[in-house]
Amino acid sequence: DNKKMRTENHLRHVESMATMPSGACNISHLNAVILGDALATEENDLIFPSHDFSSQAHVPSTDKYLEMYKRSIEDPAGFWSDIASQFHWRQKWGDQVYFENLDVSKGPIKIEWFKGGITNISYNCLDRNVEAGLGNNVALYWEGNEPGFDATLTYTQLLHSVCQLANYLKDIGVGKGDAVVVYLPMLMELPITMLACARIAAVHSVVFAGFSAESLAQRIIDCKPKVVITCNAVKRGSKVINLKDIVDAALVESAQSGFSVEACLTYENQSAMTRENTKWKEGRDIWWQDVIPKYPTNCAVEWVDAEDPLFLLYTSGSTGKPKGVLHTTGGYMVYTATTFKYAFDYKPSDVYWCTADCGWITGHSYVTYGPLLNGASVIIYEGAPNYPNPGRCWDIVDKYKVTIFYTAPTLVRSLMRDGDEYVTRYTRKSLRVLGSVGEPINPSAWRWFFNIVGESRCPISDTWWQTETGGFMITPLPGAWPQKPGSATFPFFGVQPVIVDEKGVEIEGECSGYLCVKSSWPGAFRTLYGDHERYETTYFKPFTGYYFSGDGCSRDKDGYHWLTGRVDDVINVSGHRIGTAEVESALVSHPQCAEAAVVGVEHEVKGQGIYAFVTLVQGVPYSEELRKSLMLTVRNQIGAFAAPDKIHWAPGLPKTRSGKIMRRILRKIASRQLDELGDTSTLSDPNVVDQLIALADC
Ligand code: 6R9
């Protein structure tokens, strides 16, 4: 009953924030423009979908959104079963469509959707689409780093490639529930590998191919894969990166900790490096091209329960050890497919490009699973987005006639800096919908993306979500909502976001606080691999009864949501999640570093930059050489993307008398807001602050 009341309250709240052009409009005080009519400027910051766009959209109005949203909240079981029925199930789920306990005081946290339902996500991505007549449609367009290098796979061809790899994996003894670690760049072999694992119910754990050997080893040791799948090298921009060397080092390290990987399947990426130049360990290493093509192109599916694991993906938290986020099959399948369809207003005529790497959740849900479940044609781009020049993205958009373009604010900002002429040189006339993900998009980047890239014609879906949520949580539906630059707008179907204060009390109306979610949704993660206790402690204990996102959020008087960034010790650099503790532990592993404190600072392009304060071992002088060596340590332990933007040598760190580092003060020093240091009197040694300021620009 309590739950019912809360649901009713929530619905009343959503209805009252309905800001439709036709309905009770409480946004009339804003200057509105219609898509395609005018530029988005600071004066007219409310952009309505055009009649043309809306009338053809899956959700053509705010009224329709409200009707669907209302049903999704009042009757989640009915709403989601209707959608789930559109997929192929070997056997339908049981009477209970979902089960949830999100309250630690009532027992272990547990979320289940479609339990008892028997299905396979790889079958639903491939066989189901081929049977529906899409076999000759392009599933993957691959664009190489070097202009002119490309390839395609139709749905039938993709199915065949997936089956060949699946047969090989079975042959070497990989079976249901076994982990497979994947360390591949954006080659077609990456989604092929994910789908092959899913086909035989193996659990893939993709590690972004920018992580260092040490990080890779850490993940291998944690999930103990039967096989590691990689390639010899990749070209990104003008650089060749020798991935096999990194894998070799990781495998040595994991063997030293007692876990030996028996097989390393290596794809020969000839455009980057030849076989002859690749280091090889006989008996363990196998060339992909030598074995996979020999296998049959059909492979029986391993049917699984909806709640059987699909994949593990490690992500950063507020302590040093990465968390293995575990997603299961059925709910994730239904959720990624549905969010993709509605948030991008996907139609069969679309050509879709998401610039994210499959090494991150965005690549899992919105390069591989969501789009392929919808039978979409997906672009996989191997290279750097500004290679050979900052026009490359729009060159690709024109080449493939991309209609939906999904990227991160950091790329938008960096292209914005390179100048409009790189954009306007290309027509971009195929573009229809734009998307943004990874961090808050600042209104000026939003407007540039909207006005210049999309020529004021394309709505922007600013999708807020997380590795943990599996799919979009707060996002515009482009035909339904008027947009405000920088706001992720309103919740997706079935999602009940709430803003709570420090005590966990929901706050209504115009407010800001901690973003939580009440009730479960099908795409939610089910546990942290091997550490259910950490799952409960991190996400469900801070505010009883809710999932806590770790993000701050405010809601304006019109009900729009504005994400304000992480409230924990996680920073978001170019849309990559990095725990400050991970960088700190890398720094202190350096023999000459005594202590490190890392904070995020505002960064014009990356969103946030990494600012590291370090104290040195007694008697060690600070030098340029040492700075470089500290940077190298972080690169080696985590990856180049986590290297600090600034190392600030500190004779001492500001600490409370109980020895706690005062990060609040360090953040102010890092951002040079020296007049906002606040009270420093509780520090055990207030002089360190002056010392730090004096050394700021050393
Ligand atoms: C999908 C993804 C999650 C964190 C999240 C938040 C930030 C993602 C955002 C956004 C504002 C958006 N974030 N999308 N902030 N607006 N549209 O990025 O997953 O790597 O787990 O990062 O990213 O801070 O908590 P993940």
TrEMBL record:
One of its GO terms (biological process) is acetyl-CoA biosynthetic process from acetate. Residues 65-125 form the Acetyl-coenzyme A synthetase N-terminal domain. SUPFAM superfamilies: Acetyl-CoA synthetase-like. Its EC number is 6.2.1.1. It comes from the Eukaryota. It is found in: Cytoplasm. Keywords: ATP-binding, Cytoplasm, Ligase, Nucleotide-binding. Residues 135-520 form the AMP-dependent synthetase/ligase domain. It is an enzyme of class 6 (ligase). CDD domains: ACS. NCBIfam families: Ac_CoA_lig_AcsA (TIGR02188), PRK00174.1 (NF001208). PANTHER family: ACETYL-COENZYME A SYNTHETASE, ACETYL-COENZYME A SYNTHETASE 1. This is acetate--CoA ligase. It comes from Rhamnella rubrinervis.
